[in-house]
What does this fold into?
Amino acid sequence: MTQLYLIRHAHTQMTGDVADRWSLSEKGRREAGILARQDFWRKVTMVLSSPEPKARQTARPAVRRWGIPFKVADCLHELRRPRLIRNYQQVIARFFSNPEQSIAGMETASQAAERITRCLKELVAAHPGQTMAVVSHGLVLTLFLAQLDNRWPTVSEWRAVPFTGLITVDTNTWHPIKNWLSVSEIS
It folds into this structure.
């Protein structure tokens, strides 16, 4: 069975109103260090990351520790959004329930879901038989997992994705093997 490890980036330091420039917080750097010490990395043959600093910084400790090849894949970026959004949870609820509509100037849910699904499936197809770890973002990973079941996610599903969370997907069946685990639950 070929596996795909999907990892949400570690906790961030919200500096400024442009989320795609945020770095890890001190807590996030600790989480990335704990993540890097987990045994599942022994199976990983390639690490792919979103271009955003918070994702690359989450991946780097494991890449260094285990000597795993690392690539940035632009298509793994988080949802395109113009600025920091007030009432974010309410906006995301509208985003999930109106997938064809741009909410608050964001990329639509259908565009983001199509992008991340195509991206992950193409990356897996381009590296047959390899076990990859992908470090990306909560919203697009939530969209991807829901799309595997031909549906739209709920806000509660999105909120259940922990920082430095891990979920494993069987790439033969395209179904998750386990639910999301936080970094403290990974073994």
Summary: The beta strands are 3-8, 12-13, 23-24, 46-49, 70-72, 132-136, 166-170, 175-176. Residues 109-126 form the longest helix (18 residues). The domain at 3-176 is CATH 3.40.50.1240 (Rossmann fold).
